[in-house]
Structure formats: structure tokens, C-alpha cells
């Protein structure tokens, strides 16, 4: 039971995307008056973050690691 409580607290408070990263504030605060616009902005934000993560992975594994430039990671 303690594990579930710690998982819940970690998910809601510590690893919450809106509370930890400011990237999620626009769809959360800006367009949340209408459900359709909030869903659209949330999907757009999810798409951009997913695309950026894929690009960062590709740069890391295809450029930085083979050329031993890991110190350029930010």
C-alpha cells in the first residue's frame, strides 16, 4: 500500500508535467475554457514534445556518441 501511495505522490506532485515543466502551461491555462480547443492544443503540445524527443535521441545516438562528443549534451 505504501508503494502505491509513493507512486501516486511521485506522479501527481514530483513528476507532474504541468508543475515541473512550463511547456505544459499553455494548453493547461490558456485554452482550457473550451474542451475542443484545449484538446487541440494539448495534442499539438504532445506532438511537438514527441518530435523533439525523437530528434534529440537521433542526434545523441547518430552524431554525439559515434564522434565521442557526449560533452555537448545539454
UniProtKB/TrEMBL annotation:
Protein name per UniProt: Electron transport complex subunit RsxA
Membrane topology: Multi-pass membrane protein
Keywords from the UniProt entry: Cell inner membrane, Cell membrane, Membrane, Translocase, Transmembrane, Transmembrane helix, Transport
TM region positions: 6-26, 38-59
Location(s) in or outside the cell: Endomembrane system
InterPro entries: NqrDE/RnfAE, NqrDE/RnfAE_oxidrdctase
Main location: membrane
GO CC annotation: endomembrane system; plasma membrane
Superkingdom field: Bacteria
